[in-house]
Amino acid sequence: MKLGRQVIILDNQRFVGSVGWRQNEQSFNAFHAVNKSLPNTQVTYAFVNDANRITGDDAANGDLRMNTSLINLAYSGFSAGTLVGYDYLMDNDNQTLPGVPAASTQTLGLRFVGKYPLNSATLLYTAEYANQSDYADNPLSYDETYALGEFGALMSGITAKLGYEKLGGDGTVSVQTPLATLHAFNGWADKFLTTPKDGLEDVYVSVGKKLYGVELLASYHDYSSDNLDYDYGTELDFSAGMKINKSLSLLLKYANFSGDKNTTNVTKNLAVTKDVEKLWLQADVTF
Question: From residue 10, how far is each of 87, 100, 103, 213, 214 by CA, in Å?
Fold first, then answer.
């Protein structure tokens, strides 16, 4: 059990994470308890009353006050993988921020992740489904779905994955994950930190390999809306990371988002379809 300001990471950080690669890591003022007394079972509960976000307290929406309960149950007794059930009850009460009560949501879901050895390769697979609905003082009434399917393989040091992720939207409201490590999902250009009101469907492929001590990773994304089914654009991402010694690591990271300008619905999402190119050079020093 832990009480105070802390990092909380649940599963793959899609709903709750630390945004750990940013200089100002996300943390929570919370009570956090983990119980592993049952065989192959982990029960996690957290009550959060403040989210300290990467933008800092002085930035808009940087400090998010809430009365949020996070419930996560994981069972790893299956030979094929781990089954997770979760219920995240996010109750925002910071009335100084416009629209915050409308971000109060309940997200109830199931997740299964595993791997299976097959001859010289290892199969990798993940399936997840969740329902997000209004909660607490949210003035809106809605039910939207989150879905993830990912299949891949590890062979000869190469990891390749093909995936599909959906964050539902109906043109008025869409699935949101404000406590997530958002940068890790839907491309590094950060075009979809806030899910568009028409939702998001992301079809992606990635390939990674360690070569001469350098961790290489490349991915390609094809984005479209859930509602009305029109294109947002495509994105190509690339990274190369290397550990020089015990105290120094280097990272090169590149993202190139190309917006679709031909859709008849582009006027609804001008910001989403604007081209973006980003380059990071990063050094980490441990002492």
Answer: 12, 23, 20, 30, 28
What type of residue is 170? D
Does pLDDT of 113 surpass 80? yes
Residue 54 neighbours by CB under 8 Å, 6+ apart: 19, 22, 24, 25, 26
Report strand pairing: 27-35 vs 2-6.
antiparallel
C-alpha span between 226 and 6 (Å, rounded): 35
CB 122 within 8 A of CB 155: yes
Phi/psi at 102 (5° precision) = -70, -10
List CB contacts of 250: < 8 A, sequence separation 6 or more.
241, 242, 244, 282, 283, 284
What does DSSP say about strands 63-78 and 214-224: parallel, antiparallel, or unpaired? unpaired
Closest C-alpha to 11, from 152, 122, 109: 109
Residue in 218, 212, 209, 202 with CA at minimum distance from that of residue 254 = 218
Of the candidates 104, 255, 106, 265, the one whose C-alpha atom is nearest the C-alpha of residue 192 is 255
Which amino acid would we find at residue 272?
A: V
Q: Which one-letter DSSP state was computed for residue 270?
A: T
Rounded distance between C-alpha atoms, residue 142 and residue 197, angstroms: 12
Give me the pLDDT at residue 61, please. 52
pTM above 0.85, yes or no: yes
Instruction: List the one residue out of 198, 166, 171, 193 whose CA is nearest residue 257.
Output: 193
Confidence of residue 59 (pLDDT cuts 50, 70, 90): very low
Q: What is d(CA 21, CA 34) in angstroms, rounded to the nearest whole number?
A: 25
**Nearest one of 74, 75, 83, 15 to 48, comparing CA atoms:** 15
pLDDT at position 268: 57
